[in-house]
Design brief:
This protein is an alpha+beta fold and about 475 residues long. The chain has 11 helices and 22 strands. A hairpin with a 7-residue loop joins β17 and β18.
Length: about 475
């Protein structure tokens, strides 16, 4: 038989049990006409087709990604691909180590002489033979060795022969899954009721670690005891920045509890609940001029040539930007900071401040550009080094992140937070020994920030789980 073609229909979800179905159509090059294939082709004897491949989680429901489709003229093996190839079939997110692959075969292909499963995990290109389905009937049980992407290739044989030869590195998988059975690790360090610029806020600090977090994995809810219902505290999820000042709504007073939930890409959740806080009633409204001084935002802040006047205008723009930040208006803050930078282009700290706001707006490349400009002015500026390193980690540019964090530590060997981040980068790269060394060294310098100390202790206590949760490069 010739190599079969693979054609993906839309991903659907069965209501029966917890199955999520990925439809994959196989057809011999000279097989009968199929509704999945364009045009008519001649019918030959002893042809078969595999009707579908589906993923069945044995422990938890499968969460499907948005369905994608292959072009109908993309034959199996015609293009190179890896386990996480974006052009391969839709990727199902599986929250279980053990799951099953179900397959249907059209009646004329029976009886089957063998059903053979091949797989590749992580970033591997070489396929590994998993084994034979002894009873040659679906489903085919599979136990994942690790978390991360995993691709499958089925070879079904009957009296006419196998459906294909053993897969090569360029063979496109019949089915892709992403295995993630480890929930995030989260710890809420502080929930402090205070005020800022006349408004009540709750300052939150936390640590959340997971190998597969989306850009905004944190949701915040609150409740007013004795109520049991949790209410959304923010309309949109938060980034995993580790810090957030929650502006308390005017109608919320008295006892309150906050719940911080971190959700990874597969839907695994972990949460932390704050101790009960007591919120004072908001103060009576004061005249705007006394509580929050109004600062006019000029349409443009071009340099006048007068150093004194330019300095004053820059200070007004910076003050306006920081007020906008307090009010949650990031776009206005960026505009003001850019105006201030145009007046003080050599101010490294101002450039770093602009970069941090751009980062919060998910404008990563613009933020990196601003950080680099700041570092040209001040090569050891900590805020720019650590801000750029955090972006590099998110982009999996671990060598760049290590370089920047190492520059901080060389300048200040007692910087516990930078040492902690170096440990995190080591974990991302699969070096548990180096990570533990960095964490212990950070604790040894006796961090002044209690939140950093708590975060380090949490990492050391959960080192084994953290190490297992990350996909090793080349594994």
């Amino acid at each position: 038989m010739r190599r079969t073609g693979c054609h993906l229909r839309t991903a659907t979800v069965r209501k029966r049990l917890t199955r999520s179905t990925v439809l994959v159509q196989h057809s011999d090059a000279e097989a009968r006409t199929s509704r999945f294939l364009p045009g008519a082709v001649p019918i030959r004897r002893r042809t078969w087709r595999l009707g579908r491949v589906l993923i069945l989680a044995t422990e938890l429901a499968v969460v499907m990604s948005a369905s994608t489709a292959l072009a109908d003229d993309s034959p199996l093996g015609s293009e190179s691909g890896t386990a996480a190839d974006a052009t391969a079939p839709s990727v199902a997110l599986v929250r279980a180590r053990a799951f099953e692959i179900d397959y249907d075969v059209n009646p004329e292909a029976l009886p089957l002489s063998s059903v053979e499963l091949w797989y590749r995990a992580g970033t591997q290109r070489a396929w590994r033979r998993y084994g034979l389905d002894e009873d040659r009937q679906p489903p085919f049980g599979f136990i994942a060795e690790q978390e991360g992407p995993c691709a499958f290739f089925l070879i079904v044989a009957n009296a006419a022969g196998p459906s294909s030869r053993a897969p090569t590195p360029d063979s496109r998988p019949h089915c892709n899954v992403f295995v993630d059975f480890t929930p995030p690790i989260v710890q809420l360090h502080e929930a402090l009721a205070t005020s800022a610029l006349g408004r009540r806020v709750v300052k939150l600090t936390w640590s959340a670690v997971d190998a597969h977090l989306p850009p905004r994995p944190v949701t915040l809810r609150f409740r007013l005891p004795p109520e049991e219902t949790w209410r959304p505290a923010e309309d949109l999820p938060l980034s995993n920045s580790g810090r957030f000042d929650w502006p308390v709504p005017d109608g919320v007073t008295g006892a309150i509890e906050l719940r911080l939930t971190v959700t990874d890409r597969a839907g695994n959740e972990a949460e932390a609940i704050s101790p009960r806080l007591e919120l004072a009633a908001p103060r009576s409204a004061r005249p705007e001029s006394k509580s929050i001084p109004k600062i006019d935002r000029p349409a443009a802040a071009l340099a006048t040539g007068d150093p004194v006047e330019d300095a004053r205008r820059a200070e007004r723009q910076v003050a306006s930007a920081r007020l906008a930040l307090k009010q949650g208006d990031l776009s206005a803050a960026i505009a003001d900071l850019r105006s201030a930078v145009s007046l003080r282009p050599a101010d490294a700290e101002l450039l770093a401040e602009l970069a941090s706001v751009l980062d919060a707006m998910e404008e990563k490349e613009a933020a990196l550009e601003a950080y680099e400009l700041a570092l040209k002015q001040s090569p050891t500026l900590r805020s720019a080094l650590i801000g750029a390193a955090e972006i590099y980690v998110g982009q999996h540019r671990f060598a760049d992140a290590t370089t920047y964090l190492g520059r901080i530590v060389r300048h200040n060997p007692h910087d516990a937070e930078a040492l902690m981040h170096l440990g995190d980068v080591a974990i991302y790269q699969g070096d548990e020994i180096l990570a533990r060394e960095h964490y212990r060294r950070a604790l040894g310098v006796q961090p002044r920030d209690a939140a950093v100390t708590a975060a380090l202790q949490m990492r050391l206590e959960n080192m084994a789980a953290l190490s297992r949760s990350y996909v090793r490069p080349g594994s």
